[in-house]
Amino acid sequence: MGLYKAEGVVLRTRSLGEADKIVTFFTHTRGKVEAVARGARRPRSRLLGPTQLFTYGRYLLFEGKNLDTVSQGEIVQSFRPLREDLDRMAYASYAAELVDRSTEPGDRHEGLFPLLVAVLELLAASDELPLVMRYFELRLLGELGYRPNLSGCIRCGASRAPYFSIELGGLLCERCLQADAAAVHIGDEAVHVLRYFERADPGRLQVVRPSREALAALETVLPRSCAVRIGQPLAALEFLLALRAAERG
Question: What is the domain-level CATH number for residue 114?
Answer without folding.
Answer: 1.20.1440.120
